[in-house]
Design a protein that fits this description.
It is a single chain. The chain is 53% helix and 15% strand. It is an alpha+beta fold. It is elongated and about 90 Å long. It has 2 domains: 197 residues, Triger factor/SurA peptide-binding fold (Orthogonal Bundle); 109 residues, Chitinase A, domain 3 (Roll). The strands form 3 sheets. A 4-stranded antiparallel sheet has the order 5-4-7-6, with helices on both faces. The chain has a 3-stranded antiparallel sheet with strand order 2-1-9. A two-stranded antiparallel sheet has the order 3-8. It has 15 helices and 9 strands. A hairpin with a 3-residue loop joins strand 1 and strand 2. Helix 5 crosses helix 8 and helix 5 crosses helix 15.
């Protein structure tokens, strides 16, 4: 819900030079080895804060072409100048962070890798993610990790410079929270969902004979429940002592949850969500095993009010989520302002020569 609101807001930044700086935040000079960028290449800028770096035409051209592929359009001469300024800023912040002896640990780098994987549109394995890095960013895995480490160091450098300012970010007012809610009320909805208990027969890591035995046992229990010779609740209690299956509360299954469909199987999810409250199913098969389910709660889609929990049983409300969203946006705005202020100060301190005529190719 909040992600859709943030996406609308971020689209308004797409025309500015700062957008290009942030777009390049995981590109930098990664696609061009430093030595190759400086040998037999026409300089577009020479930058020195603590050491001299030549930014070559080849490097800027490759970054421009990569951005053009990502954006699906040709960049103008003005856009090329923005790419150059972003690269100059990148060099300055790298050198300033190195001078300040900012460090990050290997664990922090791995946490950043996992965060980037989670931000993709779909779940991917580590091998698939490495393939994306290679194919879409044109980087080896080792170069990607090193570049990510550099970006984390740069972010920490900016954050430490703005530490006092981050402590003074004002809390969102009730009026601000309500305004965001009212402008985006249609985004705050709960989809259809069902909560269920289940008798579960795990088929994972079992040989054929064990799987067949589990299927026979599940079918037997289901028949007995249907005939009335036992009850679902009696079998839930029996599962405490019977090692052939387990019983328990699954929680809520939400319609449209792609992760649940991937993990359990589309057919299982859709069949379960078609059951009514109080229904006891026959034997249903998922990607992980066999289930006999009883629907304990069934909820239709509805709009959420400000003080409604995001999901049944959760403590976080719509109000809490909007408050966090507003604070996050203020932190992002402050971080971007800090980047701009830092760059202005570093550009005053550094020696920079630009050769704009070399932006023509």
């Amino acid at each position: 819900m909040i992600q859709k609101i943030a996406k609308k807001r971020n689209n308004r930044l797409a025309g500015g030079g700062l957008f290009l700086l942030l777009t390049l935040a995981l590109l930098g000079t990664a696609g061009v080895p430093e030595a190759a960028a400086q040998i037999l290449d026409r300089p577009v800028a020479i930058v020195r804060l603590t050491k001299t770096v030549n930014i070559g035409q080849r490097e800027i051209r490759q970054q421009t072409e990569l951005l053009e592929r990502q954006l699906g359009r040709t960049l103008s001469r003005e856009n090329r100048e923005e790419v150059l300024e972003a690269q100059i800023g990148d060099v300055l912040i790298r050198q300033a962070a190195e001078r300040a002896q900012i460090r990050v640990t290997d664990e922090e780098v791995q946490q950043a890798v996992q965060l980037q994987r989670q931000q993709l549109d779909r779940p991917v394995s580590e091998s698939d993610f490495r393939r994306l890095v290679r194919d879409q960013m044109g980087m080896t895995w080792e170069a990607y990790l090193e570049e990510l480490r550099t970006r984390l160091i740069q972010e920490r450098f900016i954050m430490e410079r703005a530490r006092e300012s981050f402590g003074t970010i004002p809390e969102p007012t009730a009026r601000e929270i309500r305004q965001v809610y009212e402008e985006n009320a249609q985004q705050f909805t709960n989809p259809a969902m069902a909560r269920f208990e289940h008798l579960f027969f795990d088929l994972r890591n079992r040989d054929t004979a064990a799987q067949q035995a589990a299927r026979r046992r599940a079918a037997e229990i289901s028949r007995n429940i249907e005939r009335g010779t036992t009850t679902f609740q009696a079998q839930m209690r029996a599962s405490l002592d019977d090692t052939s299956f387990s019983g328990g509360d699954f929680g809520y299954l939400v319609r449209g949850d792609e992760e649940a469909r991937r993990r359990l199987g589309r057919s299982f999810v859709e069949t379960l969500l078609d059951l009514e409250e109080g229904d006891v199913s026959g034997v249903l098969e998922s990607n992980v095993g066999l289930h006999i389910v009883r629907i304990t709660d069934r909820r239709s889609p509805r709009l959420l009010q400000l003080d409604d929990p995001l999901l049944p049983g959760e403590t976080m409300t719509v109000r809490d989520q909007i408050r966090g969203y507003i604070l996050s946006q203020r932190q992002q705005d402050l971080f971007q302002d800090s980047i701009q202020t830092t760059l202005e100060e570093l550009m005053e301190e550094a020696e920079i020569r630009r050769f704009p005529e070399h932006l023509d190719w």
